Amino acid sequence: MVNPHAFAKRLFPLNFRHFPTLPALLLILFPAPAFAWGAEGHEVVALIAARELTPAARAQVAHLLGSEAMLVQDANWADEIKDQRRDTGPWHYVDIPLGSPGYDARRDCPQRGCVVAQIENDLRVLGDRRMGDGARAEALRFLIHFVADVHQPLHAADDDDRGGNQVRVMIGRERANLHKVWDVDVVEGLGFDAGAVASGITRSVSGAERKAWAGGTPAAWANESYAIARDQIYPPLAGRRELRLPRDYAYRNAGLTRALLAKAGLRLAFVLNGVLK
User: 32 Cβ partners below 8 Å, 6+ apart?
Assistant: First the structure.
């Protein structure tokens, strides 16, 4: 299903050629903070997961959300409600300090207010048949989104820059921030059709990769994403908070992006198959 927000972004990409008006220029010069994989990224993850569900899990998804298709249609629900439920904002990420050995629950997730703890909580609620369908459906909607979020490297690492939101970058004519580049640009670099991107990724995953990737814990996934940010994304910045990225930055990171989306989709299916028996 086409997400209207994603479709609008595809029609009107953020660059000077398409936005000559003052309000649009302000959006470019002062980009709003990005919070998660863009709409397309979340749709891709949900589509990959949908292909891996067991019949029992598929039936439970349809029961709780109204139809199997809602697994994809609700992939961005957690972003869409943030203005109404501001307390959920911190649930989309975990700030693991750059240079630290990795995730520390006491340091990085106080009061269990981070993506790792929320995935764990949503799994508990979803798997408890004594909970009402309303609570379980909400947990499922959050889970679809948060498993994807924890696989976005800048949702798991922080260099006192709000996960890259305060690193201003230029790519060609586009002014953005590093977080937005990893939310949106690297995914759109794979193509604008979420279904086609998901199908291509699914076909490219080997049996060995599927076996190795479809497992783990939320904390392990966060540590994996953190290591990618620490070892691959941040070093080229050399500590700069304003820089120009190569025009082909998305292309250079296409393989990594595909792997991250594949892991997120396979792991989403892994946890849903585990609790929706």
Answer: none
pLDDT (tens digit, 9 = 90+) per residue, 158-213?
Answer: 999 999 999 999 999 999 999 999 999 999 999 999 999 999 999 999 999 999 99
* Range(s) of the domain holding residue 94: 4-275
List C-alpha distances in Å: 87 to 77, 81, 95, 149.
15, 10, 16, 17
Residue type (1 letter), 224:
E
| SS3 label, residue 169 | strand
Domain tally, the chain: 1
Closest to 92 measured CA to CA, from 32, 146, 153: 146
How far is Cα 134 from Cα 136, in angstroms, rounded to an integer? 5
> CATH number for the domain including 34?
1.10.575.10
CB atoms within 10 A of CB 257: 25
**What whole-number distance in Å separates Cα of residue 269 and Cα of residue 262?**
11
Instruction: Provide the whole-model pTM.
Output: 0.87
> DSSP string of 210-276?
HHHHS---HHHHHHHHHHHIIIIISGGGTT-SEEEPPTTHHHHTHHHHHHHHHHHHHHHHHHHHHH-
